[in-house]
Amino acid sequence: MFFRNLTLFRFSPAVAENLGELEAALDEHRLRPCGAMEMSTHGFVSPLGPDAEALTHGVGDSLLVTVGSEDKLLPASVVNEELSRKVRKVAEDEGRRVGGRERKRLKQEILDQLMPRAFSRPSRMQVWLQRKLGWVVFDSSSRKAAEQGLTNLREALGSFPALPLAPEKSPRQIMTDWLTSGDLPAGLTLSDECELRDPANAGGAVVRCRHQELESDEIREHLRGGKQVFQLGLEFDERIGFVLGEDMVIRKLKFFDVITDELDHAQADSVAEEMDARFALMTLELERLLAKLDEWFGLPRPDGA
């Protein structure tokens, strides 16, 4: 259950106090199957698996929640093909063209016919809430998906004013300085991946490097040409690897063997105990990383209600 991506938000101490009622609030917003005429539904499922009832799982100051959704699979190509068939039939039977308004009506009729028979695709997204430190972390690299998850939490709680990160220092400039100088904070080293762009030319060339020495002359030439770092592969304390974006989204998160080996020594007599061990180990490592991100970029916690 180790997270693979991190989209981050922060909330105030006052908001943290309201999370004590989270289990009861989520219970009224459990995920349900799509109705016959619904394209999608959103809600919460147990982070402990399909046979469990609890919608939150806590270890210390951390809570684990799982946002679920079901989306009907109704390919546009299928709808358009059926629409074309109906339009041709009208032309053949009645000898006239189908106008825009009638075309919309026919398309809606097709959707109404096909939707009850469409398959549903389930998806799940893990969410970690650190109450003491004020972090809400979505296991997703998609800002849109994370915002949807945040909306689900707000609907369940009535209010959940978690805010996107607002770095006090420019991540793009700091990462460009790291790559240019090779002078990184203690415990942080370059990996083998980066994305470089010219910030003055939105439509300009994008340089994406993977499995490449980032201190090479080729990379330095791009930097001398004015390109800046938009994504940078990094390793932290030889325990975690990730790609940090200028949007402060952490992608391709990987826990190295030194961490996963610690789980092999843990004595877990049940699935729940094993999950506790994994969740505790993951959150401990990520709390250290998030504290450093706050130190390097300035990611203040809101102090309002």
From TrEMBL:
Record InterPro entries: RdgC (IPR007476)
UniProt keyword terms in alphabetical order: Cytoplasm, DNA recombination
UniProt-listed GO biological process terms: DNA recombination; regulation of DNA recombination
A cellular-component GO term for this protein: cytoplasm
Major localisation: cytoplasm
One protein family per Pfam: RdgC
The organism's place on the tree of life at top rank: Bacteria
Subcellular location: Cytoplasm, Nucleoid
Gene Ontology molecular-function annotations: double-stranded DNA binding
Keyword Metal-binding in record: no
Function of the protein: May be involved in recombination.
Family: Belongs to the RdgC family.
HAMAP family: RdgC (MF_00194)
NCBIfam families to which the protein is assigned, alphabetical: PRK00321.1-5
Protein name: Recombination-associated protein RdgC
Gene from which this protein is expressed: rdgC
